[in-house]
Design brief:
The protein is about 50% helix and about 15% strand. It is α/β, with parallel strands linked by helices and about 375 residues long.
Amino acid sequence: MDRRSFIKKAGLAGAGAGAAALATPAIAQGNQTWRMVTTWPKNFPGLGVGAQRLADRITAATDGRLTIQVYSAGELVPPLQSLDAVIDGSAEMSHGAAYYWQNKSQGLSFFTGVPYGMTSRELTAWVRYMGGQEVWDEIYDQFGVQGFLSGDTGTQAGGWFREELTGLDSIQGLRFRTPGLGGQVWEKLGASVTNMAAGEIFQALQSGTLDAAEFVGPYNDLALGFYQVAKNYYFPSFVEPGLATELVVSKSKYQELPSDLQAIIRDVCQAEYDAVAADFAANDPRALDTLVNEHGVNVLEFPEEIEQAGAEAAKEILEGLLDSDDPLTKKTAESFQSALAIVRQKTEGTDALFIRARERYFEL
């Protein structure tokens, strides 16, 4: 996909289109049309495509009783105002990442990714079966919305850097795009951290506003064109070990739906969580091959000094959240910590051992 084709579409729509989009949702003969605003550029691999597919599946499964109309980043509201659009009633749904809204509650970051925290499979175990959804609901109840896991990128790439990292000294003053609790870790390591939407990152790298940036991984990063301005690509991310996206729905409007439509939204989100995971598993390796063999990208691992310092910073941040003055943030951190202690036993005691054995002994 040509990077310019979807970056261009990520810009703000004209006033006329915006005014039309803000019209009251259509309700005719019991059918409804809901607006979904997203943080992703139009036709964006994995994430934007996943949001559109989720909308299409809801529309098809309800036989048009609930039609979802998707507005990509900037078409109705700026990408990082998507949640606010649902809260204020400008849209019925938003598709993004919960850690984008950590200014509303630090607890929300736990439902996207935690530095040195859960893998994506561990995260969905916590949310679905170990009390995570219930505490997430408590946080979002404050804003009149309901959140569902809607996509899974797996463990992400660590980011693109203009200069090779030799140790902690390389990070001091580094202007780095990275969000959430991971951004707080990088700040503790000495970076100057900012967050920005996908469609804004390339220009900031190109202009020199940023020295480094991470977004997701090869599948997305190839499309965004980061390789054109930075060649050092670090793996893996230690701050985003299993990123999840979310669908947020107006809670009052969701509860007004018949029970079967509520179930369709919930179940389609769960199906899409798995579909997006498969999409990234299939296409990240192909994209990385292209980046290396066609664009001369250098694939590197973070120096051990940085990984160790990152782990210490992550532990310090989590301990602070466990002592948070905000009861729901504290409750979320406690729930996460308790669940991680359980789910990591299988990941480290079974899955990791198998991966190590396969790597050593099995080739086709």
